[in-house]
């Protein structure tokens, strides 16, 4: 025996060594295959896996501050990402979200803005993300780490006196706002001007409708129309209603031309009231009232007038015109005039 102590190998260690060595000191082919398979599976698992990491620039904020949370994601190639979050996350409200920025084939970055409205320690729950891998129908999810923030109130210096609330700031009007105001004033002025001009035209039209002098003297025109009506012999042909309508229309039109009031547009009572304002019409008031009311009965009440009443209608109409006509006097000729 030499001076060296004998090397003791346990049965388990001897068994392990026997897996990786041959009699000539080389590895078995099956052992090499197992090692290659383990390396490939490790690489495949790393390639197919996904991770997410979240962080913020600070952990202390004032209540209501906008907190930007940054997120980095590791994912398989060509993965389609989406954030699984509503309007709130725990005690935080989500104010804004940024789109995913692909930093490499297997990594992306995004961020969201949150705010807390209660003081104290606030925990932002893990952010959930879903990703879809091509040729796979089932989505997979990953989550970030939670974040802890300290939310504090606005610091108030109690040594200073309480100040009044600041008044509302006055913002100067822009050019567009001044233009809108000026346009509204001009539009209102044009509208008022148009209304005034419209009313003036209406008053002018009404004044023109009051009286239009005939081309001939009123009594001459009325006598000619009555003569033509007499020649038509309407009531003799059984056309009683048209006969009374035309006769009273001629008389009323004569009153319009003679006295200047709209007799055709008025009732019998209104016409008689207007006639009473003219003294030279008083001698025919009774006759006029009688034939106008008889004509109303024939036209509107189906009154059956007699033949003497038909004849009296025409005779009375001639008398009314003759008694109220304007008497024209011939100009006095000077002595020695030829």
Provide an overview of this structure.
The protein has eight helices and twelve strands. The chain has 338 residues and is α+β, with helices and mostly antiparallel strands. Strands 1, 3, 5, 6, 7 and 8 form a six-stranded antiparallel β-sheet that branches. A three-stranded mixed β-sheet has the order 2-12-9, with no helix packed on it. It has a three-stranded antiparallel β-sheet with strand order 4-10-11, with no helix packed on it. Strand 7 (101-104) and strand 8 (107-116) form a beta hairpin. Helix 4 (218-232) runs antiparallel to helix 5 (240-259), helix 5 (240-259) packs antiparallel against helix 7 (285-300) and helix 5 (240-259) runs parallel beside helix 8. The chain starts with 10 loop residues before the first helix and ends in a 14-residue tail after the last helix.
Shape type: elongated
Low-confidence stretches: 1-28, 31-47, 330-338
Radius of gyration: 57 Å
Helix content: 40-55%
**CA distance, first residue to last residue:** 192 Å
Give the gist of this structure.
This protein is of the alpha+beta class and 338 residues long. Helix content is 42%, strand content 19%. The strands form three sheets. Strands 1, 3, 5, 6, 7 and 8 form a six-stranded antiparallel beta sheet that branches.
Keywords:
338 residues, alpha+beta, 6-stranded antiparallel beta sheet, 3-stranded mixed beta sheet, 8 helices, 19% strand, disordered N terminus, disordered C terminus
